[in-house]
Amino acid sequence: MPELPEVETLRTGLTRLLPGRAVAAVVSQADAPKSFPNAESDVRAFLVGASVTEVTRRAKVLIIVLSSGYSLVIHLKMTGQLVFDGGGKHFGAGHPSHSLVGELPDRSTRVTITFKDGSKLFFNDQRKFGWVRLMPTAEVMNLDFFRKVGPEPLADNFSAADFAGRLKRRARTSIKAALLDQTVIAGVGNIYADESLWAAKIHPATKVADVPPAAIKKLYTALRAVLTLGIEKGGSSNHTYVDAEGKKGSYMSFASVFRREGKPCPRCGTTIVKSRVAGRGTHTCPRCQII
DNA sequence: CACTTGACCTGTCCGC
DNA sequence: TGCGGACAGGTCAAGT
Fold first, then answer.
1. Closest protein residue to B1 using CA and C1' atoms?
2. Domain A4-148: assigned CATH number
3. I want to staple A235 with a disulfide (CB 3.0 to 4.6 A). Which of A9, A63, A108, A241 is the partner?
4. A107 CA: nearest nucleotide by C1'
């Protein structure tokens, strides 16, 4: 589900809610071992009794750092969400198909962490692609994923030249596939790929090698702009999504093409079409995106 | 190597 | 109403 802006929104919210809280108990759903593949002995030794030090993010991965020298590394994949219950009201973040009205845990709850003050953090994940892994903080960046993942696109030192250089490795594939490749750049998913390509007037199926340098530069600027807007709007959502402070993300109402097939292009009025590129549903303006 | 496709899961929607 | 298939904001492994 979430892409960089959604995970970043979640990080910001959890940073206000979790640090200082001490874990009292952890319950994981027995029939979903892949959601929480950790040894019971590690959970007892390094999670129960530990308190949260800070919450960080790399790419689409959230990292809850603990006082025990261990961290909870969390990937929400397509449908994961984290919902904090401070007592009385649920504050959540993640997949929009889950509203806040239901009592938790529910049938999609894979892990429940109870803190000593009675508050709870629920990890819900309908499709069970996501996971919560407990591991030594010092080893987190040694995970295969982190060793291969590309730079943060919003980092101050990530330049247009870096962007162009990294894209060259994928010269024969589509520009959309290259954007979605986490080893090229971190954090871009289906929504922000489509939105940035529309903004840069590049068709997603264009081979990377066929995109002129000027258009690549435009895409660099557009990508950073849509990711920044996504964060400012609290992530993308449709109806029931909220961030960790209970506010709805509003980015979807600002989307230009994503899930807007059949509607007019905000730039030229041409009807937006949906197709399939890089194995993913893809939204384009057939008039604007001609490269 | 670069690149593509299917697998992993559950739920929902859409056409017959 | 029931059923089958396509599809969903993401990665991996395995194939060409």
1. A169
2. 3.20.190.10
3. A9
4. B10
